[in-house]
Amino acid sequence: MCLAVPGKVLEIIGDDPLLRSAKVSFAGVVKLISLTCTPEAQVGDYVLVHVGVAISTVDAKEAAETFEYLKQMGELDGIELPPATPAPITATETAP
Question: Which listed residue, 16, 31, 32, 82, has the most CB atoms within 10 A of its CB?
Fold first, then answer.
């Protein structure tokens, strides 16, 4: 079975549509991904990635649903997913 995993585009590198790539975050793990098949992808978008290539863009809701399906299938065992909302800052911590 082949899986495509959703990730959030953090930074786009390059202008040439055939050579564009992006730094994409997968639950905090950042990888360099080809955007050749998704020329419409922008910073902040979610993309489905298969074998290092973004194959489509998806909205945040679909990305979250896909992560949930992968989690139920056991495909994310050992990966710590970030909470849906940021944890509150305590008195001993400082904001970034």
Answer: 31
Which residues touch 45 (CB under 8 Å, ≥6 apart)? 8, 9, 57
CATH number for 30: 2.30.30.140
Phi, psi of 60 (to 5 degrees): -60, -35
Q: What is the pLDDT of residues 18-69, one digit of tens each?
A: 899 999 998 788 999 999 999 999 999 999 999 999 999 999 998 888 878 8
Look up residue 33 and give its amino acid.
I
Residue 71, Cα to own-chain centre: how many angstroms? 15
